[in-house]
Write a structure and sequence with these properties.
By secondary structure, this protein is of the alpha/beta class. Helices cover 42% and strands 18% of the residues. The protein has a five-stranded parallel sheet with strand order 2-1-3-4-5, with helices on both faces. Strand 1, helix 1 and strand 2 form a beta-alpha-beta unit. Helix 2 runs parallel beside helix 3. It is globular and about 30 Å long. The structure holds manganese (II) ion.
Length: 132
């Protein structure tokens, strides 16, 4: 189980991400306003941050830079979610310090695969119960 901070202002996406991550055994914590995201990250100490780029008040890019500048959070993996599809945006997002990038509309399979990769979870099928 991983603690995953979700920074997203779209209520439907918040519900989708939280439901998906909880179904995979994780502990999601949503934040809908970029202004509160860094404080929440500092108190929650997530294993992964998933952030929308188009946020009110503080953009996802600013948030990624703030996380990278924080001594306690600088190594936490970050996955950006954005409606922007342009390659230039992906470069800016990666340059800011995000390791992964998924574009909306979200492919559930791709989303889960990226989360697993960032958490170092192998996406293999369950092992056979050899010792039962
Ligand atoms: Mn948004």
């Amino acid at each position: 189980m991983a603690k995953i901070l979700i920074v997203e202002d779209n209520a439907l996406n918040v519900k989708l991400f939280c439901d998906l991550l909880a179904a995979h055994g994780h502990e999601p914590r949503p934040v809908t306003d970029g202004r509160y995201a860094l404080g929440e990250a500092i108190s929650f100490q997530p294993d992964l941050v998933i952030t929308d780029i188009q946020l009110p008040h503080v953009t996802g890019l600013d948030l990624i830079e703030m996380i990278r500048d924080d001594e306690q959070l600088k190594d936490v993996p970050i996955m950006a979610v954005t409606a922007y599809a342009a390659a230039a945006d992906e470069e800016r997002i990666r340059a800011a310090g995000a390791q992964a990038y998924v574009s909306k509309p979200i492919s559930v399979a791709k989303f889960v695969a990226q989360v697993n990769e960032l958490l170092g979870i192998e996406a293999t099928v369950a092992k056979a119960p050899e010792t039962i």
